[in-house]
Amino acid sequence: MTNDARPPAGQADDAARAAWRARLGWSFGLVADDPAVREAALAHLVRAARNTREALARSNELWRLTQPLGTEEQYREPAFRQALEEYYEVRSRSLPDGLWDGEPGRDIRAWPGLPYALLFLEWEARHPQEWTAHAKAWGTKQALIRSVAVPGHDGAVRAQLVRLVDVVVRRAHRCKDREYVRVARAVDGDELRRRLHEAADSDNPWARLHAGYVLRLLDRPELPNSRRVWRTWLASQPYDRS
To answer: Could you tell me which of 158, 186, 180 has the C-alpha nearest to residue 167?
Structure first.
């Protein structure tokens, strides 16, 4: 008989979700409809980012001071270890830094950080200027899009991903936007195609261009979502970017 002190899986999941909420629950204000709520969330992020920079500076200074000890002894040195732990704790409460510490694991659908990954992508899609000013991280955007582009999400997450694709195809192209083809292929269905056809038939030249491209790749699953395919599509489409 073993003495396993680990909590049951359900309790562990609840605890993990509560920990994410304690660190980043404020971030949902970044996509609030109320400008005052969004402004308060941005102010919170500014403070969190400043705290992260300061904690990193303290950690780097102690790293410099303890470097003569050698790598093994350096990482045993209490002051440096404490500064490093404090940095990781502080950055877990900011964006995009807080998304770097919790790996999705094998199944992102069960990851307690998924709502915050989706929030980060939704913020970039709906408020790109604010995102660029306060949390620009193209590599993180790309990695998150690729991570969430899997089939089998529950209804609420699937609907959020469909809306994200819809928002992105209706705007001027931004860095890593082409990655959303992966998401479209993962959540392909009647609702997504209805939105894409509506965008492709709209007066918005960017929507016509982007939605048409996504629809083509949905209809041609053998086509890679490559830069060459994208450029070929661009060259074949008369459009006004103004």
So the answer is: 180
Q: What is the CB neighbour count within 10 angstroms for residue 21?
A: 14
pTM equals 0.90
DSSP summary character for residue 151: S
DSSP state of 92: T
Give the separation between CA 139 and CA 223, rounded to whole angstroms: 24
Q: What is the pLDDT of residue 42?
A: 98
Whether residue 104 is found in the same domain as residue 156: no
> Does 96 sit behind a cis peptide bond, omega within 30 degrees of 0 on the bond before it?
yes
How many domains would you assign to the chain?
2
The C-alpha atoms of residue 222 and residue 55 are separated, in whole angstroms, by: 48
Q: What is the pLDDT of residues 174-225, one digit of tens each?
A: 999 999 999 999 999 999 999 999 999 999 999 999 999 999 999 999 999 9
Domain shared by 99 and 165, yes or no: no
Q: Which of 141, 112, 147, 114 is nearest to 14 (CA)?
A: 112
